Amino acid sequence: QVQLVQSGAEVKKPGASVKVSCKASGYTFSDYFMHWVRQAPGQGLEWMGRINPKTGGTYTAQKFQDRVTMTRDTSITTVYMELSSLASDDTAVYYCAKDRAGNYYYYYGMDVWGQGTTVTVSS
Amino acid sequence: ALTQPASVSGSPGQSITISCSGSTNDVGGYNYVSWYQQNPGKAPKLLIHDVTKRPAGVSDRFSGARSGNTASLTISGLQAEDEADYYCSSYTNNDTHVVFGKGTRLTVL
After folding, report:
1. In what helix (H) or strand (E) does residue A96 lie, and over which residues does it extend?
2. Are A97 and A34 in contact (CB under 8 A)?
3. What's the pLDDT band for A111 if we cut at 50, 70, 90?
4. What number is the average pLDDT over the span B74-98?
């Protein structure tokens, strides 16, 4: 079955970086964008960006453009999201989510989600 | 962000509708609206994509529609298990690319 398994919870100090992994299985990894979405405690969902696993090309929301790096390792069907210069308001659950349609420009929905990775930023 | 009501409620068996207001830059200008259901402590689940389409396995009690710049999600035959948070999202032609609503808490009375 199609599955996304994310890395475990992290606790970081302000100013540090965090790297979250997301291992995909059960489908052709290269054929579907992978999105990253976060959710602060008690808040709504926020789209951060997406990566094309086939090319490594990325599209990052302007808010995160200077702090987010998305990469992939096709040999182990895993994508990564690194967030730098962490602040307390980066405390959130971070989700990876598979694009429903493929590697197309527009937004077609996210049909499979990882279990989420809790990142806590605290001094 | 897209505008959703903070909360809605209904009794079992009734129908409810959750609205999602945007602009011609997102909801009203493109057929790329999706809806998600999220239970506490769980990842979101895709309910509707491309404004009106249901993925395989999603109950036909869930339906999507749009009028102008406002999309809507209707849940018919309300059940206790429908109690959850619901989020709309859309492609947007600004630098954000994908925008979400702040979510609507559905309470089944």
Report:
1. strand A92-99
2. yes
3. very high
4. 96
- Give burial (CB, 10 Å; 0-12/13-18/19+) of B80: exposed
Give the C-alpha separation, A51 to A58, whole Å: 4
Give the C-alpha separation, A30 to A28, whole Å.
6
Q: How many helices (H) and strands (E) does chain A have?
A: 0, 11
Residue A123 has a pLDDT of: 94
A contacts of B84 (beta carbons < 8 Å): none
- For residues A70 and A51, is the Cβ–Cβ distance under 8 A? yes
- The nearest CA of chain A is from the CA of B79 a distance in Å of 23
Beta strands in chain B (DSSP E): 7-10, 16-21, 33-38, 45-48, 62-67, 70-75, 84-91, 98-100, 104-108
The string of pLDDT tens digits covering residues B45-65 is: 999 999 999 999 999 999 999
- Residues in chain B with CB shorter than 8 Å from the CB of A61 are 95-98
Residues facing A45 on adjacent strands: A39
Query: How much is the mean pLDDT over chain B?
Result: 97
Amino acid occupying residue A42 = G
**Tokens, residue B4:** 């959703």
Cα B37 to Cα B24: distance, rounded to the nearest angstrom: 25
